[in-house]
Amino acid sequence: MTSEKHQKKIAVINDLSGYGRCSLTVVIPILSALKIQCCPVPTSILSNHTGFPTYFFDDYTDKMPQYIEQWKKLKLSFDGIYSGFLGSEAQIQIVIDMIKEFRTEETLVIIDPIMGDHGKAYQTYTPEMCNRMKELVGYGNIVTPNLTEACILTGREYPKEGFKRGVLSQMATEIQRLGPESVVITGVKEGSFVTNVVLEKDGEPHFIRTRHVGNERPGTGDVFSSIIAAYAVRGVPLRDGVRKAANFVKECILKSDELNVPVENGVCFEELLSLLIRH
């Protein structure tokens, strides 16, 4: 784990959607561009993401423990464990068990507590699942909720007019009290800007802004959190990682609008991967 020639590895727990640019089809190339080996743990297989009118779905919950068991036998180790969308309470418990099994002093755990957006929890997320997600968040070194998920984690109503910065700071502090060292509340709209609230261990909240551009698209959260995860395991300061992630997402949205990519197809980040590779 300490060798200068050691290539960083992140175990990524997420679904695989064949079309639509989200989850593992985003995470794998983003991590690879940033010189991280991505080791997927699929939670489900979909023909395309659920924002399309029809899709095939295969739940992988029952297979996940058998899959992870082989990694235990191989005595694998990881620089990071990164959890994305989870489809059931059982999957949340599987991830908790995996963190306990594979975490070392050098392993960073990044939790993207994907539970909802635009003020509403996803239909698959019951109150019981939301409570279990609070437990999972406690195992993270870094957690990246959006504003909707931050409201769920802190028991607040989603604000129609937005939260003032003092309340955002308080929310980040309350999430930090659940256990994670660092909290990034993502995608908070402030006029013509999008703000990310960053609270690190023993620090004050920082507000990192980028100009709001283009259409909202699926998969941008996966791009954002993947960049944060990659930079974190490479030792880049969190605030720098957040700035790089926010700027890259902005450029991807602009490029996608320029090329008239349908909104449901996500962001055409492939056009801009060279920016990450150069960095």
Automatic annotation (TrEMBL):
MF terms in GO: ATP binding; pyridoxal kinase activity
GO CC terms: cytosol
Cross-referenced InterPro entries: PM/HMP-P_kinase-1, PyrdxlKinase, Ribokinase-like
Keyword annotations from UniProtKB, A to Z: ATP-binding, Kinase, Nucleotide-binding, Transferase
NCBIfam families noted in UniProt: PRK07105.1
Limits of the Pyridoxamine kinase/Phosphomethylpyrimidine kinase domain: 78-259
Superkingdom of this protein's organism: Bacteria
SUPFAM superfamilies recorded: Ribokinase-like
Enzyme class: transferase
Protein name in UniProt: pyridoxal kinase
Coiled coil, from the record: none
Biological process, per Gene Ontology: pyridoxal 5'-phosphate salvage
Tagged with keyword Transcription regulation: no
EC number: 2.7.1.35
Pfam families the record matches: Phos_pyr_kin
